[in-house]
Amino acid sequence: xxxxxxxxxxxxxxxxxxxxxxxxxxxxxxxxxxxxxxxxxxxxxxxxxxxxxxxxxxxxxxxxxxxxxxxxxxxxxxxxxxxxxxxxxxxxxxxxxxxxxxxxxxxxxxxxxxxxxxxxxxxxxxxxxxxxxxxxxxxxxxxxxxxxxxxxxxxxxxxxxxxxxxxxxxxxxxxxxxxxxxxxxxxxxxxxxxxxxxxxxxxxxxxxxxxxxxxxxxxxxxxxxxxxxxxxxxxxxxxxxxxxxxxxxxxxxxxxxxxxxxxxxxxxxxxxxxxxxxxxxxxxxxxxxxxxxxxxxxxxxxxxxxxxxxxxxxxxxxxxxxxxxxxxxxxxxxxxxxxxxxxxxxxxxxxxxxxxxxxxxxxxxxxxxxxxxxxxxxxxxxxxxxxxxxxxxxxxxxxxxxxxx
Length: 405
Ligand SMILES: *Cc1c(COP(=O)(O)O)cnc(C)c1O
Known about the structure:
By secondary structure, this protein is of the alpha/beta class.
C-alpha cells in the first residue's frame, strides 16, 4: 500500500492470524478497538461483486477510474471481479496499477499531463492510450513518445453542463469543432478514439444518449474510422436522498445512443466507472466527541474522509453504535462538525440518528468507498485512521429507505 497517497498515517488492523476466523462485524470491530480515531471498514467482497456485475452488464471494456479509490485491497478486489483495464490520471496511479497488475491495460486519461509522466508511462509501463483535448497536448504526446507509431489517441469531447451531481464539463473536453480537427490530426498519425464524461453521480440515463448524439455528429464530420468510443464514468449509486435507476437503464440508454451512430464494425465501447464500483465497499466509523443540541462534534470531517459531505452536501446512510447499552431513541436529524478548528469543517446533512445519541457513541457512515479516504489530508493534525476488514451482511442504516446493498 502506498501510504503516502493518503497524506495520512494509516494503520491496517487485520484479524488474520493464519486461522480460518471470519472477519469481524463492524460492531465487533468497534467493541474490540473502541476507536477514538476514525475507523475505515473495508468490505472487499462488495467491490468484487460490483465489478463483476458491471463487467457482465456493460457491452465493452470496463476501465476502473483509479482516482475514486486507489486502496490496494480495493484494487485487488476489483481485479478479482474481472476488471482488467484501468483509467489513470497521474504517473503515481500508473505505477501503482503496473506494480499490482503486470498484465493490466493502463490508459492515461488525463487531458493535461506532465511531460515526464507521458515519457515514463510510454517507455516504462507500456501505456499506449493517451487522452487529449488540445493540439498542444497532442504535440506533447508525440514529442515525449519519440513520434511513436503505436499510439492510440483518445480525443476528449466537451459536453454542455448536464445532470450530474458533479459537473466536470467546464474543465476538460474540446468543443465539437475543435474535436473534429483533433480527430483528423490524430487519425493521420495513430489509431483514434473519442471519449467524454457526463460528470459524476449522473442520475439521468438520457445524459449518455445526448452525449452520444453529439459524439455522432463529431465523428461523422471528422470522417475518420473510430477504434474506441469511451462513454466515461459518472454512473450513480444510491444515497439517502438519491435513488437512481438501476445500471440496466444506463446500459440501455448507451446501447440506444450507440445504435444510432454509424460506427465501424470493429469499434470497441469503453466506460470508466469509479463510484459505481467502490462506493459500497467501505464504511466509516466515527466517534461523537461532544453533542450540542442537534449538532454532533465527530472525529472526522471535510478535511478527512467526509470531504463530499461538506461543500457538496452529500448525505450518507448512518447508524448508531452505542458505547454502552441499546438505543431506544426516535430518529432526529443531526448535523456534524468535523474535528478541525475551521468553521467550514461542517456537514449539514441532515443525518437522522436516534435522539439518545451521546458523547462516546459511534456512528457508522455508509457508502464511503468513493472519494472518501483518498481525499484525506493531515490538516490540523487529524491524520490518523484505523483500517479494518469487516465481513457482515448489509448494515441497516437509520436514514436509508433500503438496505445498503
Ligand atoms: C473521475 C472520472 C471518472 C470516474 O467518475 P465516477 O463518477 O466516479 O464514475 C471517469 N472518467 C473521468 C475522465 C474522470 O475524470
